[in-house]
Amino acid sequence: MEIVTQAPFRVATERWKNLPRMSEAEYPGTEGYIGDVYENPEGSVMCSGFFELRRTDEPLYYEYEYDEMKVVLEGEFLLENKETGQSVVAKAKDAIFFPKGSKIHFSTPSYALAFYAGHRDASLL
Questions:
Q1: Handedness of CA 109, 90, 44, 4 (dihedral sign)
Q2: In whole angstroms, what is the distance from residue 47 CA to residue 21 CA?
Q3: pTM value?
């Protein structure tokens, strides 16, 4: 009989709390917080975590070097790709897919929290 060993599944609790603030020098005029919960666990090609954005003076601009999915948990994000002209409001329970190469401007009227999973190495955050 062959014995199969498998890594146990994981559960992270309250990891959306006290996220590290994104660099004000790199993202001026914004108040964004982000943190990976899982960074390539068990050799996976994925990273996942939470992204929080509070009301901003300027949109937070991010260029994706990898594919990523987000699920809005609370609040709403205004998502704009100024190169393509696409503009969408994503609200709680909406699922978003950003293909590699997306150039997105994030803003919110007050607050938004999302969970993300990206096909990337932990060093890209």
A1: positive
A2: 18
A3: 0.91
